From TrEMBL:
The lineage of its organism: Bacteria, Bacillati, Actinomycetota, Actinomycetes, Kitasatosporales. It comes from Streptomyces marincola. The keyword Cell inner membrane does not apply. Coiled coil: none annotated. InterPro entries: Cys_Synth/Cystath_Beta-Synth, TrpB-like_PALP, TrpB-like_PALP_sf. Signal peptide: none annotated. It holds the Pfam family PALP. Residues 1-25 are annotated as: Disordered. Residues 43-329 form the Tryptophan synthase beta chain-like PALP domain. Keywords: Pyridoxal phosphate. The keyword Acetylation does not apply. Its cofactor is pyridoxal 5'-phosphate. This is Tryptophan synthase beta chain-like PALP domain-containing protein. GO terms for biological process: alpha-amino acid metabolic process.
Amino acid sequence: MTVVERPTDKPQVEGDDESDVHPDDRGWVIDCLQRLRDLAPVETELSEIPLPPRLNGLRLYIKREAEQPSGSHKHRLAAALLTHALVNGWLVEGRPVVEASSGSTAISEAWYCQRLGIPFYAVVPDTTAPEKQELITRYGGTVVPVSGDIVTYARRVAHRYGGHFMDQFTYAERAYDWRGEEGLAAELLRAVPDLTWFVMGAGTGGTAAAVARHARYTGSGLRVCVPDPEHSAYFDGWYWRDSAVTDKGSHIEGIGRPRVEASFVPTTVNRMIRVHDAASVATMRVLDESDWDIQPGPSTGTGVFGAIRVLLGMRDSGQSGSVATLLCDPAERYTDEYYDDDWCHRQGIVFQPWMPTIRDFFRTGEWSPPETVTTVPRPLNSLWNM
Ligand SMILES: Cc1ncc(COP(=O)(O)O)c(C=O)c1O
């Protein structure tokens, strides 16, 4: 047997070495963790969306996560990822945090990093809406726009500046504290103890996994449904139990991915629904025009569309119960995109035929989807990330 010498110039001291390879900056870490506790995400309001009498016995709720201080449910993820990185000893005082993101996650991480005095870099696709880049910069972050794969670039930026790549797509599901009494699922189940379904699209998949785990852990019967946009790999990955599935990537900002990310935990998802981009955008716009004080982004449209499909299924099988989804982020981040008719037209999102379908559902409980659903080829340079 050949014995391979370890390439080290440190003396081997009988396997007992208080190493300086992994510095433990305990005072700074404790201080940051205390500040994170002081800045904990807020308990957001749960509103009921009125349903017509034909859906008697059924209830629809929307949790207003856009009320979080950095404007989306990613406020919870940013706090969780920073906590996880700090307790793991991954962050070093004065060194930056780097994230691959084009939206909500980067904005929320920038918000927290500014308050913790941690430099922050967001590697974003160069197509990212200026409103979002502006928010990241307003919270003290540095925006690095790139035309290639943002994850690869984020790794390089982290290496270049001696920082830490946060990697939400890998760590979201394990960073969330799904056992605790403070998280999203606990808040939902405190408000509606017999909640039947939680419906939400998957970006990292971390929120869906955390809610599902909390439900199982606390003995709730709550089930999780993930509506998935066109050209996301998640539906097929889930259906075929194949994590190697890939697709072109979603066109609904924040949800759907070109590959099955490590944070998506298929076994925690009870049901998935494919949703046309046009249906997501129409639902978003019907919510916005309603008098329910809901001004959502497109992923909320996908979530509410999924919730409608779940409610229709419950009605048809004579069940009663309640369904909840999230107001993920606000309309104001998408004024020049999904709320702009010309932009939608250029992207091939023909949402108009779906508008009467969604309006009729909320007015009468009738469900009559458009007879022909046009799918138009999409420009390949506008795949959305997070
Ligand atoms: C606007 C928006 N909606 C929904 C999601 C999905 O959340 P999750 O990453 O927990 O799956 C994201 C994720 O970034 C998002 O930005």
